[in-house]
Amino acid sequence: MKKISFVELNDYIEKEIVIEGIVDNIRFLQYVIFIILRDITGKVQVTLEKTKETEKLCEIVSNLSCESTVKMKGILHTNEKVKLNGMEFIPTEIDITSYCLEKLPFNYKEKSSMLDTRLRYRFLDLRNEKNQFIFQIQTCLVNAFREFVIKNNFIEIHTPKIIPTASESGSSVFCLNYFDRKAYLAQSPQFYKQMALSSGFEKVFEIAPAFRAENSNSYRHTTEFTSFDIEFSYIDSYKDVMDFEEDLLIAGLTAVKENYGNQIKELFSVDITIPKKPFPRIKLETLYQELEKEYGFSMSIEEIGDMNSESEKLASEWIKKKYGHEFVFITDFSAKKRAFYHMRKNGVPQGYDLIWKGCEITTGAQREHRYPILKQQAEEKGLGEDVKFYLEFFKYGCPPHGGFAIGIDRITMLLLEIPSLKETMFLFRGPNRIEP
Length: 436
Hints:
Layout: E1 16-28, E2 32-39, E3 42-49, H1 55-60, E4 69-78, E5 87-98, H2 115-120, H3 122-125, H4 129-151, E6 155-156, E7 162-163, E8 175-178, E9 181-185, H5 190-198, E10 203-211, E11 224-233, H6 238-268, E12 281-283, H7 284-295, H8 309-323, E13 327-331, E14 344-345, E15 348-349, E16 351-356, E17 359-366, H9 371-380, H10 388-391, E18 401-407, H11 408-416
Parallel strand pairs: 3-5, 6-10, 12-13
Antiparallel strand pairs: 1-2, 1-4, 2-3, 4-5, 7-9, 8-9, 10-11, 11-18, 13-16, 14-15, 16-17, 17-18
Helix pairs in contact: 4-6, 4-11, 7-8
């Protein structure tokens, strides 16, 4: 039998049905027992009067505790006196399917507990209705992304996460023993996305984990995250990639607003803004000048040619003030700060960072697809042998192409304006956390 979700109960008034859920609250009074059951869609009141006819049922629930799970058969009635949705369930059969045997280590219904405690008992923390709602929103966003790319004839691929070389940045990959040799966890599916295009797939996407061995404890970094990766062929420039990302984000945010906009406003005090095209676009050097003029900000010598967290926040503030826009594309980074596979024109990488609400959400680019130039750029970075297998893809012809990736956990954090992505990940992984 299909489980009846509590949000659907209005369709079953005055009908005998079976319901299942978790005991959210229970009150033992002199003549009646009130039980509030919940599932992920809502709550319902169960009313059990103490009579001779219900003696066995009362005995069954006499030791019932909150967080236990139950299955009940009975009839759902309307009752104007019941504050919870004006209905109550009168049980005729009760089965306790599991008992909560211990006192909870913290009150998951409140946010007052320390984050470390909540992460330690994440399986309890996720019982919080607001936390569950985060993942319903995330599901809506990712599904909208998926639907958009499939509508645009993208093929979904699943690339390996165990790779033979520490090819992108040897200092920030996880090394593991792979039988008689070393292997590494993939930082991204970048090389394999491009391999798919060299295979003639033309347009590909992947939603999958990526791994970064970065000893960072910031609000937006993690050692394992979920990435939405895009790569597509036959582009004329990186501007085609920016155009596509604009459309993708608009589709995702529109779906979230249509389905959950009012609830997000109520629970998170956030208004979902659907951005207008085109997003503002600015060269890095020009941005430096504007930030210095407006805020007296200047990059350190070591970071010139790139962005840092402070400049990202100021860039968002400045763009919001000047253009009334939440997003900004920043272009013309230093070649020293960009990956070797970014195409360059006159020495300038043909790519961008996309900043939203003071935080980078994407690094995108047109890729270098011409073997001799790609090989030369890899050697400049000291990656000749490490990327030998990757360079093979381009010896046999590969169309002009580009792409980007969006961290699902980070974009959810920014969407709902939550302080840390630790709360938008199902299970967070960081330098000091590998459990549960």
